[in-house]
Amino acid sequence: MQKLLLAASLLISTAASAQVTLENTYVLNAPAMQSEDLFPIKLSTGEAKYVRFNSATRLMTLYNLNHSQFKQLTVPAPPAGYGAPGIDYVSDKLFNQDAALEYIVYYNRTNATSQETTMLNVYSEAGTLLLRSDSAYVNHIFNTSAGTKMLLSKAYPSLTGGNRSKVVAYALGGTLTTLKTQQAEADGLRQPYPNPATESLRLPYEVKKGTATLRITDAAGRTVATYQVDSTFDHLLLNAGELRSGVYFYQVVAADGSASPARRFVVSH
């Protein structure tokens, strides 16, 4: 009898502790054609942080898991003629062995013929420029037995018309630290595929009830396409030819305004 009472007590205790608890609410606000986002990262120490970035103010704020402020810095202003920045790969000990933060910034510019150019800069926490590459975006950063590698796609004019690009491989001084460990194969099905994409790609999503909006934004946070989706399907088949080469993010926004985490994909023509 005592054993049964103890087992029941443990079950009640487990159920009481396994509840979803609201920790904090971040109010994101940005003017039209700008964006403010919040996303998680993991540092080389194993610590996870929240990163909040506003493309209008260029202010990047990192928070601890208890939601206290960890660090705050301002991303360098875009060069003349370029628009508001977008950030990627906020990290430490990735591009070098310095313990300070590092990050990639994308600056976009559209010329008179509506052609878009992306400048990729890698900055240190102090604003020191570690790398600059015109007409480029990151395809992959990955760890290997020979060190960490970065593949950049660079577009350049074709003498015969059309689009031409080349992939440039870099060796990085540090190691890529990701939030995710090895996941089951099913988890991979929830990621954009193929990525990078040249013709079409599958954008997985989940809508439990009603309809929602699948929103695609460029690296600067500008909305480039929206689609109405529901629970009939679990993915959107996107024609990559509708987008210029570059880095994009997508998320599903429900009718009540709640949004799924943004997922990154690359289009390369």
How would you describe this structure to a colleague?
With 269 residues, the chain is mostly beta strands. The protein folds into 2 domains: 26-171, Lipocalin (Beta Barrel); 200-267, Immunoglobulin-like (Sandwich), CATH 2.60.40.10. It is 7% helix and 47% strand. The chain has helices at residues 2-17, 185-188; strands at residues 36-42, 48-54, 59-63, 69-74, 86-92, 101-110, 116-124, 129-134, 136-144, 147-157, 163-172, 200-204, 211-218, 223-230, 235-239, 246-254, 263-267. It has a 4-stranded antiparallel beta sheet, with no helix packed on it. It is globular, with a radius of gyration of 21 Å. The termini are far apart.
Short description:
The protein is mainly beta and about 270 residues long.
Question: What are the SSEs and their pairings?
Answer:
Layout: H1 2-17, E1 36-42, E2 48-54, E3 59-63, E4 69-74, E5 86-92, E6 101-110, E7 116-124, E8 129-134, E9 136-144, E10 147-157, E11 163-172, H2 185-188, E12 200-204, E13 211-218, E14 223-230, E15 235-239, E16 246-254, E17 263-267
Signal peptide: 1-18
Domain Secretion system C-terminal sorting: 193-259
Pfam family, one: Por_Secre_tail
Number of domains: 2
Q: Which stretches are poorly predicted, pLDDT < 50 over at least 5 residues?
A: 181-189
- The percent range for strand residues is over 45%
Query: What value does the Rg take, in angstroms?
Result: 21 Å
CATH structural fold name of the largest domain:
Lipocalin
User: Mean pLDDT across all residues, rounded?
Assistant: 84
User: Which structural category do the helix and sheet elements fall into?
Assistant: mainly beta
Organism: Hymenobacter aquaticus
Protein name: T9SS type A sorting domain-containing protein
Domain Secretion system C-terminal sorting: 193-259
Signal peptide: 1-18
